[in-house]
Amino acid sequence: MSAVRLHLCGILRAILRRSPVPILLIPPLLLLLQLTAYAQSANLDQGSNDKATTPLNPVSWVNGNLNANMAHFLEGYSVPYRAVLEGLVVNQTYTLVIGFDVRNSSKHALDYLTHFQRLSPHNVFSHGQETVNPLLNAPQPASYFTTTDVFTMPAPSSTGSPVAGQPATSFNALPAGEKQMTGYNADITNITYASQGSLSAANSETVVNITFTALKSTAILAWGAHIASIVDWGKDPVTGEPNSASAINGSPYHVRLKKWIINGADVNIGNQDRSLKTDAVFIPPSCSVAGPANACVQTAKLTYTATVDDANGLTYAWSIIGANTANAKIVNSTLGTIDVVPIGASFTFGSFNLRLIVTREGMKDTCYLTSHDNPGTTINIYNVDVNAGSDQTITNLDTAHLSASIAGGDGTYTFTWTPVTGLSNPNVGNPDFIPPSTGVFQFIVKGDDGNCQDLDTVVITVNEHAKPPCGITGPGPVCPGSQNEYTGPAPASVGSYLWSVTGDGTVSGVNNTQKVLINAANKCGTYQLRLIVSTPDGKRKDTCYLGVQVKDTIKPVLSGQISNANVACTNNIPAAPVIGVTDNCTAGLNVQTSTIVSDSTCVNKYKLTRKWWATDLCGNTSDTLKQVITVNDDVKPVITASFDKTVNVQCLKDVPAAPNPTATDNCNGNVTPVYSVTGSGSACDSTITRKWVFADACGNSDSVSQVIHIKDDIKPALSGSAGNVNVTCSKDIPAAANISATDNCDVTPGVHFSQETIDSTCINNFKVIRKWWAKDACG
């Protein structure tokens, strides 16, 4: 086939190259090319399970339409379909286009595609569901189909749906395995909606593209088409007719193979439409039973109600099944609502089960109380026995815990107590009773499970609760600032302690034990102790008090050695003596002191008066001790001056540096002198007098002097050479010699020069006499 296709392509190319050939020959050749290249075929089969009375298992594949003589389906089933595909090119990709009617004659027909095996539940037909085998009676034996592939269908759209969410909600509720298309010798690569039919139009079609790769020349695709159900689409609110297509007299369920798509080209597939008639689709009856599952033997009757999908054309058949140990019977077993009454005067302790069979058009549904599973909920007939509990004796401060119990019944009970006085909640089984007084209280409890009731009585005797002992022992009166211990009654008869104090005292440490420590205030006064005790059970308390005086009338007594003293200096003042004090109450007791300075004329000349006394916390003051210290400094400083007191020098520069005499004082230690100098020493015969005066803080003083005499009596000395010279001419007279002078005092004494000409007879005949001399500052 491939060779033929290539040959025809060569012919086409030759025609196109030769312009004389008529172009009109091209379309027939293209048609011939297409028919020769794509020789695949497809056949659409429906699964027939025959009539319900003669079911076929497994289903038979029919290459045609179905009716009541060939099939029996319920709404909500999926009609099995298979497409037998032959003449395929291995590894060629194909797209098979399938259409199905979602709406027909304004009713919902086929909602979406599913797995091919969906014929459950099947019990309404009185036999099990049939098996669907897509390879049954295939063109090739089952062993030929060596691969199986599945692909999940896409969910349908709910856009424009008259029932919100449908049919997507129905599709999404399916198990994952029921949403799959199956391919045999076909690798399914994609399933998409080419278009989705309107959910509100009178007639509409959904088109699905199934893309696969052929693994052998013969392949099979298998799926199911979901039959629209009244459960999903409901009834018309005006006419009461189902909105599903099973109400139509005809064949509204259509599935068709529309075309191939091969290499992007649409290829005709022929007439491949299959239909299902509505006389093969049934709406099964359904029922449920509601009513009491428990009742008291005193109950006169029990009423049970059936809920059905549609009462039109429906018959009811009620029955009691199993062991009827409760002695029950049905009044009329053919009604939708029945009464069950006792066979005799009353029910007996026991049980029974109910079954209802509803029938319409030969189809049945069996249900039981609250279930479709046999035997359903068992109905129990019983009685209740209430027990109010034991009588109790308590005190007026106790709480009685009542506790009622019930035997029998369904386990769901209500309680009612009377009277309600003192009860925490009269409508529970275990209320607390808080007695309002002493006395005898009787309560009646009623137990009720909704069907049966019972009464019982309990008596509570209430007596007066005894008080705890209370008393305080401890010291008094007490000293200010003292700590004192107080004791309450023995712990054997007390459950708790609580101490407190008011007035001039505070609690030290814990305040909830038998003993307590009280700190008295630092003053005279009173405090009052309070002790609250409770009984060991904590239910009754008592309070007792103790008043305590805080007082002191005895003055303190000072002790210590004290004597007056005379000293020369402040630093000789003796340290203050240690003064002790004793008192009958020692808290807050301290020796107080004062120091007064008087008659002060200088820092080391005055009187110092010291005083000591003590005052206790109650203001009692001791006798006063006094010490007088006289300070009198009359000693002048002592000078140390180890230098010449008289000095003679030639020059001012020879004056020695000033020495540093020192002095010490009996009080002040080293004393800094007041230094003065008279005379400048600038005259040739002069005197410099240096004086140091040492005085202490109190004006005691002494001094030392140094006198320096300055007198220069040494003349300057010349140095240099100036010998006599004889010359012929005036121009030969030498320059004056450079003569310098030195002096003991003057660093650069001035040198004087004079020149005189004598005995001159002509310009070159004379004498020149030159003289040099020096003179210091003192002449």
From TrEMBL:
Specify the superkingdom.
Answer: Bacteria
Question: Which residue ranges does the record assign to the HYR-like domain?
Answer: 640-710
Q: Which InterPro entries does the UniProt record give? A: HYR-4C, Ig-like_fold, PKD_6
Question: Which Gene3D superfamilies does the entry mention?
Answer: Immunoglobulins (2.60.40.10)
The PKD-like domain sits at 468-526
The protein's name: PKD domain-containing protein
Native organism is Chitinophaga filiformis
